[in-house]
Design brief:
mainly alpha
Amino acid sequence: MRNIKQSLIAALFSMITISVLTILTYKTEYGVFLIASFGSSMVLIFGYPESPFAQPKNIFFGHLITSLVGIIFLNFVPLPLYIIIPLAVGFGVGLMILFNVTHPPAGGNPIIVIIGSVSYDYLFTPVMFGSIIIIIFGLIINRIILKKNT
């Protein structure tokens, strides 16, 4: 019975959080708040909030570091995509582990950044502002509503 309750809660709150990011992206002029890796973040934040990978610092800095690495490789490493993408992913993963801010969904950010040829603004929206919104929803839902000590 616990698995059913946990899965329903994770599904519902993932829908709510991603809905807010989607509405901000498509129904306002504030910019893009939604990236694919945020969907994977929902699994950890609402399904396994006690995981060290689901903690606020990991979410924020994991997404920020890997996106920044992708942007740096995109702009400063003059090699073919088939070389810079794996290098950027490897560096991003390594830096998350080095700085103890591992958030597995963020490992895909360099791929998103490089394939999408994003600008430095991408670090603000969607990465930082989107991560902050996700963290706020995670804290409200997990700590205030569900009374979890995560």
